Structures are given as structure tokens and as C-alpha cells.
Amino acid sequence: MDRDWVRELIENFSSATIGGMNIPKLINERQLHTPSRLFKIRTCSDFALKNLAEKTLYLSVANEFNDPYDTAFWADYRKIAAWEKLDELGFSKDQVVKVLESKDPISAVRALASAQEPPIPNVDQWLHEVEVLAQNFHTGQLPWLIDQFKSSYKICSLSERVDSVLMWSHYGYNHTGFAMEYDFTGLHRNHLSTLTLWPVAYTNQLFDVTHILKTQRRDKDFNALYGIVASLCKAIDWQYEREWRWVVPDDSQVKGFDVDAPLKAVHLGARISDPDALRIMKICSEIDIPVYKVRLSPHEYRMISEPHIPAIE
């Protein structure tokens, strides 16, 4: 995982219970590190220009994003079953922890149960049932659960960067688009973005929700916000984007919606066409937003955004 403060924030957010979170620290750390400049690179589509003119951003569902792992997570049903069985049989907390830390918790339960005097009966039958249930969970229930979050949570991705060649290529239609710049730091504490804007963490592992689903089976205080955490965990491959996200828990009735956003400036792509540049400058003049132009450095792989001065005809 990347930056230490992001890792600690995700760990705090990943508590098995809501009561286990340090919510003041969660909010304070996020506010302390929120950049004053966040960017959304867009194509020059009518929809994007509508967002520009209205000073809004569109929040969409994860199953429409280009990352197949977006908002995915993992859970090990075998660990959940092992924990419940050991708890039922009255084993100590230390014994349970040792089993759950093993690579094969089911075999560990068998060894522990067999070592008792007299051996605990019907363990093999229980083990068979667990294997069947685990397969059903991992091929049916878990994918269904992930899809519920992917098709309901509304997300808008932003970046700390306006100088990424890759991002302009991917999201700005080969540098022919534009970027909208936002500053969320001055908004009221009850504004939607203040409550729902979080940094993305980059890691090699999917978010493991085993401990949360285990707690859900017995504790009403379980962390029902784990879908937010899942949407904030992405593969290391995406680290160059330095992403922040609006993540709004919602249902699947609508695919997305627009939200007012604190637009600060607009940056024209290095290869934007003259007609598109003129359209954007006209809109920015009407809404009193400054315009910058991205240019390519002549001697290094670097993109520079500078105040745009239209050519005099």
C-alpha cells in the first residue's frame, strides 16, 4: 500500500465494527491531507461541457468503469466457518486466533478437534459441509455481493495530477480534451464532498472483508461502510493517477447523478482542436473561470499548464 497516512486511514476505516473506528481521526486526517487542487480530465463531449457550464460533476456506478477490479473485495468463508465452529466448541480466544492465522483454517480445526480427549465427534461431517458451503459462497454469494456495490454506490474519480501523459491519453481522448480543476478545501463541513471525498490506496491485495462479514453474523454494530473502503482500494498499476474519490452509498435505481462542485479553473489539452477550445473558452468566460493550456516540454517527458492567451487574429 502507498503513503503511510492513507494506509492508516484505510486500516481505521476497515474496522470490523463502527464502534471500533476512530471517526474524528478519520475525518481530521482526510481534511488535513485534502489537496487544494484536484483534476478531472474529460473529452470534449456535450455531456462534459454541460458539467463544465453547470459547475457539476457526474457520479457513476463502478460497473461502468474501465477497471474490472473496481470496488471488488475478498472474503474467506472457511475462516468464518472455522471461527464459528471453534466458538461453538468453547475453544479459547488464543486458539481461535492461531487457527484463523493459519493458511488452511479448516485443517487447523480438524487438528485441534482431534487432539482433544476424547476427540470431538462429527468433525469430518462438518468439514465436508464447510467445503460445500465455501464453494457456494465464493462462486455465488460473494460475486453477487460485490455486484450489489458495483451497481449501486455512486463514484466520481479525481486526480492530484494534471501533468500525466497517460491520463491525458486515456481520459482526454489523446490529449484533445480538457481538465476541470477543483478546490474542495474551503467547503462547509456538511457539503456532500466534505463527507464523501477520500484518497485511493494502492495495494497488491484485494480488500479482505472476512473479519467484517464474520462480525456481521453476530453484531448489529458491524461496519456496514466496508463497500466504501473496497471502492478506495486499487491495484498498484493505477498508482500514477494519485486518485481521490467521491463515494456515495446509494441504491441501484439510477446509474448516476450530477452534483455541484467547486470549479476553480480549466486546462485545455495539448492537442485540443481550435473549435473545441473556443467552445470551452466561451463557457468559461460566461461562468468567470480562468483557462490554462497544457503544453509539452521540449526537452523532457513533462507536461506544463500555463495561463492561456488566445492568439490574436
Describe this protein's structure:
The chain is 41% helix and 20% strand. The chain has 313 residues and is of the alpha+beta class. The strands form four sheets. Strands 1-5-12-13-14 form a five-stranded mixed β-sheet, with helices on both faces. It is elongated. The termini are far apart. The model has no long low-confidence stretch (mean pLDDT 91).
What is this structure, in a nutshell?
The chain contains 12 helices and 14 strands.
Structural class: alpha+beta
Q: Report the end-to-end length measured between terminal Cα atoms.
A: 52 Å
Unreliable runs: none
**Strand adjacency order, main sheet:** 1-5-12-13-14
Number of strands: 14
Helix content: 40-55%
Overall geometric form: elongated
Number of helices: 12
User: What's the order of the H and E elements?
Assistant: HHEHEEHHHHEHEHEEEHHEEEEHEE
Which features would summarize this protein structure in a list?
313 residues; alpha+beta; 5-stranded antiparallel β-sheet; 12 helices; elongated
